[in-house]
Amino acid sequence: MSISPTLQECLRSKGSRYEIVRHPYSHSSMETAAAAHVPGDRLAKTVLLEDEHGYVAAVLPSTHAVQFSELWSKTGRRLALATEVELRELFKDCDAGALPPVCMAYGMKTWLDSSLAGQPDVYFEAGDHEALIHMDADQFLALMDDAERAHFSRRMRGMGAMSARQ
C-alpha cells in the first residue's frame, strides 16, 4: 500500500519536506519503532477516540498512553476508544492500525500532545505497516498546524530512557 493517498495529498498541499523510512512489517507502534530503529519518543502514534458527538484523534509519542482524564478536561468530552471496525471505515486508504496523524485531512478534530513538539524530528505511520514518514520538528508542526496542542499523555511504565534511545 505505502503512503495513503489522503496523507500524500496533505503532504503535497502543505509543501512538506520528508523522507520515507521502510521497515519490516510490524503490528504495534513500539514494534514499529524497534523495526525501523527509531526512538520511541519520536514516533507519533494516532489513537482514534469517540463519543456521541463524533470522532477525535489523539496524536502522541509511541512510548506514551493517553491520560483520559486530561483529554476529557481539555476537550470537555467523555471520549473512549473507537472500535477497529470504525477505524477501517473512516481510514479506508490505510491499513488497520497504521493511521497517519493528519486526521484533520479525514475531517476530524485532532489533538497533538505537546511532548512531540519538543522532539528534534518526528516519525509517523504512512498508512501501512512497512513505511514511516520522517520529518524535522518544524515540518511536522507545520503539517499539524490545525491540530489543538495540549499535554494529555504520560509515559508508559517500562518506557524509560532505554526505549527512547532504541
UniProtKB/TrEMBL annotation:
Annotated InterPro entries: YbaK/aa-tRNA-synt-asso_dom_sf, YbaK/aa-tRNA-synth-assoc-dom
Domain of life from the UniProt record: Bacteria
Pfam families: tRNA_edit (PF04073)
A molecular-function term among this protein's GO annotations: aminoacyl-tRNA deacylase activity
Record domain YbaK/aminoacyl-tRNA synthetase-associated: where: 23-141
CDD domains given in the database record: YbaK_like (cd04332)
Protein name listed in UniProt: YbaK/aminoacyl-tRNA synthetase-associated domain-containing protein
Organism whose genome encodes this protein: Paraburkholderia caffeinitolerans
